[in-house]
Specification:
Layout lengths: L1 H33 L18 H138 L3 E5 L5 H4 L2 H12 L1 H7 L4 E7 L12 E6 L2 H13 L2 E3 L2 E7 L3 H8 L2 H9 L5 E3 L3 E6 L2 E5 L2 H10 L3
Antiparallel strand pairs: 1-3, 1-5, 2-3, 4-5, 6-7, 7-8
Helix pairs in contact: 1-2, 4-5
Protein name: L1 transposable element RRM domain-containing protein
GO cellular component, one term: ribonucleoprotein complex
GO molecular function, one term: single-stranded RNA binding
Length: 348
């Protein structure tokens, strides 16, 4: 702004000088025109035109006005120059103050620059150290991630191996169950010609052979079989287990294998219709089955007795299936769990 003011003042001075020169030139031209010593005054009396008196008076008045205007202009110009000089002095003083302030600001800027440099250096050192720490932390985190990935991968592999092994185990268990079922079925089929005699006292077979005792049991309880078929042929007959245990209070079972399956079935059906006796002792005749099948059938004993008390006509079907007659319908159950779920739904 101060530079602009200085240029403006310089322009004003140049304009004043130019106007002054032009006025002087104009004034000189008029004076020379009417002056007796001028070029025009040197003209011959014959060539000089006649000038009216009022023109001369107007020219004199104009010259007076021009002189007054010039005096006023010079006066105003001096005043303006004085003002400009005053302003220039003030600007010079202000410039000195500004220079002092600039020097002070430069010194402060230098100090700030040095301080900023120190701070920048400290920041750079801290940043470098932080980068090193961050890099170290990143390396440790990456190492941990790699270890976690390895553990997850190994754990996933173990899980997959466990799943595969569980599937294999399940398949093996299914195969084992199937094989056990097939084995039991084969064993039961191998025993299809056998009958099991339960409750026959041990002292009877000391006096007679077991095959004779069996024929007497049939003769005493279902003689019509002997009348129809004649003599019952027994392939073999023995106690089970074969070794007597004196600590047992109940007699060992007798296993008899018939040569004719039809006679065996007739004796079995007769034993289901009525209880058999031998010399006054109650004996029970059942189908000879494998140990596992007998165990499964034994699980139904309590339920079987309760169902018989309720008149549900319970039956044990091959190999170990319970059937009951309820509300005009036959219900069958493969396991005790199925029967328990059934009675929970049907509390009646």
């Amino acid at each position: 702004m101060r530079g602009t003011r200085a240029q403006t003042n310089t322009g004003r001075k140049e304009g004043v000088n130019l106007n002054k020169q032009q006025k002087q030139k104009k004034e000189t031209t008029i004076d020379s025109y009417y002056s007796p010593n001028g070029t025009e005054g040197e003209r011959s009396a014959n060539d000089k035109p006649e000038i009216p008196a009022n023109w001369i008076q107007a020219v004199e008045e104009l010259k007076t006005q021009l002189r007054e205007a010039e005096d006023n202009w010079e006066k105003n110009l001096k005043i303006k120059i004085s003002h400009l000089e005053t302003e220039a002095l003030e600007l010079k003083q202000e410039n000195s103050v500004l220079k002092a302030k600039i020097i002070q600001l430069e010194n402060e800027a230098k100090e700030m620059k040095d301080e900023i440099k120190r701070m920048k250096d400290n920041l750079q050192r801290n940043s470098d150290q932080k980068e090193k720490d961050d890099q170290k932390a990143k390396d440790e985190i990456q190492s941990l991630r790699n270890r976690v990935k390895q553990l997850e991968s190994s754990d996933l592999t173990r899980q997959q191996d466990t799943i595969k092994q569980n599937k294999k185990n399940e398949k093996i268990e299914e195969n084992v169950k199937h094989l056990i079922h097939k084995t039991d079925d084969l064993e039961n089929r191998s025993r299809r010609d056998n009958l099991r005699i339960i409750g026959l006292p041990e002292d009877h077979d000391k006096r007679k052979s077991l095959d004779i005792i069996l024929e007497e049991i049939i003769q005493e309880n279902c003689p019509e079989i002997l009348e129809q078929e004649g003599k019952v042929e027994i392939e073999r007959i023995h106690r089970s287990p074969p070794v007597f245990n004196p600590q047992l209070t109940t007699p060992r079972n007798v296993i008899a294998k018939f040569k004719n399956n039809q006679i065996k079935e007739q004796v079995l059906q007769a034993a289901k219709k009525k209880p058999f006796r031998y010399h006054g002792n109650m004996v029970r005749i059942t189908q000879d089955l494998s140990a596992s099948t007998l165990k499964d059938r034994k699980a139904w004993n309590m339920i079987f007795r309760k169902a018989r008390e309720l008149g549900l006509q319970p039956r044990i079907k091959y190999p170990s299936k319970l059937t009951i007659f309820l509300q005009g319908k036959v219900w069958s159950f493969n396991t005790t769990e199925e029967f328990q779920a059934f009675i929970n739904k049907r509390p009646d």
